[in-house]
Amino acid sequence: MTTLTQVHLAIHQEKNYIAQTYPRPEFVITHGEGMTVYDSDGKEYLDFVAGIAVMALGHSDPGVVEIIQQQAAKLIHVSNLYYTEAQSKLAEQLCEVSFADKVFFCNSGAEANEASLKFARKYAKTYGGPDKTEIIAFTKAFHGRTYGALSITPKAHYQDPFKPLVPDVTILPFNDIEALQDAISERTAAVVVEPIQGEGGINPANDEFLQACRAACDEVDALLIFDEVQCGLGRTGTLWAHEPSGVTPDLMALAKPLASGLPIGVALMTDKVHGAVKPGDHGSTFAGGAVVCAVASYMLETINTPEFLAHVQEMGTYLLEQLQSLNSPRIVEIRGRGLMVGIEFDFPAVDLVNAGYTAGYLLINAGPDTLRLVPPLIVQQEHIDHLIGFFKTVL
Questions:
Q1: How far is CA 58 from CA 37, 50, 62, 360, 378, in A?
Q2: Domain with CATH 3.90.1150.10 in the chain
Q3: For labeling, which of 243, 341, 344, 358 is most exposed (least CB within 10 Å)?
Q4: Which fold has domain 4-60+306-394?
Q5: Residues paired with residue 86 on neighbouring β-strands, in sequence order
Q6: What are phi and psi of 37, to 5 degrees?
Q7: Measured between alpha carbons, how far is 266 from 233 in angstroms, rounded to an integer?
Q8: 180-189 burial by CB neighbour count: b if 16+ within 10 A, else e?
Q9: What is the C-alpha to C-alpha distance for residues 174 and 163, in angstroms, rounded to an integer?
Q10: 3-state secondary structure 228-283
């Protein structure tokens, strides 16, 4: 067990040497296994955050650990100047299980959205002319904190300190088909939407809305971009969150769970989009490294099976049923699909987050009043039962 002095030292070092952009609870996490993480005092926490929807296979998955060790012993980094087997294999896998014909590798969700925006504007200028530059996004969206992604993330707290942002962005009401149809024009280069909004409060897009986005884009030769950084890769019980709508995009951003905690982002695209992409249009030194891609291949192979996705659906249904059975007057609404669930309360969600730390749970909010449940996809009924018991006590 780590001594108290060492614990205080870690927190002291963080406060003195790390930019203070993250508020953190006063404990130090040292290790994890499956659904559980442990702090330096040996206290256990049942994890319903999963590194913000990242640790889909849980902590210290033996297969992930083995893949990291094997690949690191062979090759870690050579940059994108050269071919590697791990990168090529993952690219083929992603295309085979999606709408895409090509992929662009990067290092995060924000980067995947940045790449998607760049490719969309390049396509629009190549085939539509210099004035076809408008990007349409929606209220309560979250696409990242880099400048392009931030410009389509319409929250004053995130945007105002860093203005001016990337120009020619139009924000429309989420799930409002009429507003979309009125706004889109020949100037529109792309429409960007999360099939299920994450940070904005776990708000699912209606199937009809996604279908209207596809139809509106087709009318003016704009590209449809899906941001599945948080909702994709099995989180909702299907491999892709957009599947139930029957709609496919032209570009799609992926990231969070793909490499089981290692940094990766991907912009998937059709050949139509790729036709406008030329050597030198975009790049990244670290993207698509051999270790990260090897782990991502394993992760994709693991979750993309009927049995695994059926488990996510089963646990998601059980979680929703148990939450609804709480029947608490403090609950305003329960939203989501699969293991991506938001519970809106009539009090600040941070109160439950803080109570969770004391009781041994990792929880996270999505907006001021909504608690977000995005556990590892390996969660079992017994873990959900523990959480429901906690809610009953606190509520």
A1: 10, 7, 10, 17, 7
A2: 4-60+306-394
A3: 358
A4: Aspartate Aminotransferase, domain 1 (3.90.1150)
A5: none
A6: -120, 160
A7: 12
A8: beebbeebbb
A9: 23
A10: CCCCCCCCCCCCCCCHHHCCCCCEEEECCCCCCCCCCEEEEECHHHHCCCCCCCCC
In the chain, CATH 3.40.640.10 covers 75-303
Q: Where are the beta strands (DSSP E) in the chain?
A: 29-33, 36-39, 44-47, 102-106, 134-138, 169-172, 188-193, 196-197, 203-204, 223-227, 251-254, 265-269, 331-337, 340-345, 361-362, 364-365, 370-373
- What per-residue confidence (pLDDT) applies to 90? 98
Write b or e for each residue in 323-349: b if 16 or more Cβ atoms lie within 10 A of its Cβ, otherwise e.
Answer: beeeeeeebeebbbbbbbbbbbbeeeb
Encoding tokens for residue 107?
Answer: 């290092």
pLDDT in tens, 256-303: 999 999 999 999 999 999 999 999 999 999 999 999 999 999 999 999
Structure-token match 């305003």, residue found? 332
Residue 127: Cβ within 10 Å count? 12
Query: Do residues 319 and 341 touch, judged by C-beta distance below 8 A?
Result: yes
Nearest-angstrom CA–CA distance, 267 and 116: 6
Tens-digit pLDDT profile for residues 157-204: 999 999 999 999 999 999 999 999 999 999 999 999 999 999 999 999
pTM above 0.90, yes or no: yes
Query: Mapping DSSP to helix (H, G, I), strand (E, B) and coil, where does residue 319 land?
Result: helix
Among residues 109, 78, 147, which one has the least CA distance to residue 286? 78
Residue 1 pLDDT greater than 70, yes or no: no
Fold classified for 75-303? Aspartate Aminotransferase; domain 2 (3.40.640)
